[in-house]
Amino acid sequence: MKIICIGRNYVKHIKELGNEKPENPIIFLKPDSALIKNNDPFYYPDFSTDIHYEVEILIKIKRVGKSIPVNFAHMYYDEIGLGIDLTARDLQSMAKAKGLPWDLAKGFNGSAPISNFIFKNNFNVQDVNFSLKLNGSLVQASNTSHMLWSIDEIIAYVSKYMTLKKGDILFTGTPEGVGPIKIGDQLEGFIESKNMFNFEVR
Ligand code: MG
After folding, report:
1. Which of 51, 55, 121, 161 is within CB 3.0–4.6 Å of 132 for a Cys-Cys bond?
2. Ligand 1 center to 87 CA (angstroms)
3. How many domains is the chain built from?
């Protein structure tokens, strides 16, 4: 499986990082070795001193597709989840400054803690509230209606370049409020009022 992520999909987050609004979705990948499940802890690595949380709605792809038209994209997923696109901001800033790839800043071990998935039947996926608490304090809260590119538009765009396969996971971008984590922190994520994950940084 692969983990496909979109960068800069919420206007207020683009502004907080001082980035420009892109013409097309910015796509990057994480390896499957980045996954953390079942509320297992994240172990802070020694190669970064500035790892940030970015809470994001996840989509699990349910069947193979390529060059999927936007109006068919909804047939390629049934389940949504919540995850954190953990980002070594120091490594990413160095890479950006030199025009180099972000892979190590975004794809290191444990950089993709994810929740279990829930069926989307009860949701309009473009009107879902989601949030993140850090040590019990709300740090990120948004709604999928604020995405620049909708989930179906992302699927259509990515599948022109990469065939989507059953089990692939899409990270749909983070809203404003990103910030650093440290050892001992507790990260708790919600879709609407449902607790989706709760894990510790060690
Ligand atoms: Mg992100």
Report:
1. 55
2. 8
3. 1
